Amino acid sequence: MPVSGITVSLFGAHTSLENEPRRAQDALVIAVAGPATNLFIGMSLYAGYLAFLESDSVSTFFLYLSIFNVIFGSFNLMPVMPLDGGLICTFHLVVGE
After folding, report:
1. Among positive and negative, which fits the CA dihedral 39, 41, 47, 52?
2. What's the number of CA atoms in the CB half-sphere (13 Å) around residue 54?
3. Which band of pLDDT confidence, cut at 50, 70 and 90, is reported for residue 97?
4. Nearest residue to 72 via CA among 96, 45, 37
5. Which is the most buried residue in 8, 24, 89, 93, by most CB within 10 A?
6. CA dihedral in degrees (80, 83, 86, 92; nearest 10)?
């Protein structure tokens, strides 16, 4: 899907698409991609924390970043519009899958 622009503000980022997704499944994939990316980054940073346990400052930095990413991804899954969790709930209510 072609992206027409990315807007970053104090409250987060928003991607503007040139066209709306044609299928509901495409919209679901887009909605799941954001929180899944945050959770993946959180797990990767936690692996960095485990790799640098000998260095207190570096391991603490990785740990705090991993916790932030997991919390941010979980927050984004809340079933409230316009968060991705709200879009996922809308998909399930409309499509019924």
Report:
1. negative
2. 1
3. low
4. 37
5. 89
6. -170
Give the span between the Cα atoms of 12 and 61, in whole angstroms: 22
Q: What is the percentage of the chain residues whose pLDDT exceeds 90? A: 44
73-87 pLDDT, tens digit per residue, is 999 999 988 888 988
User: Are 38 and 72 contacting, i.e. CB atoms less than 8 angstroms apart?
Assistant: yes
Its pTM surpasses 0.85: no
At 14, the amino acid letter reads H
58 near 45, Cβ under 8 Å?
no
- For residues 21 and 32, the answer to whether their CB atoms sit within 8 Å is no
Q: Which two tokens stand for residue 2?
A: 């072609």
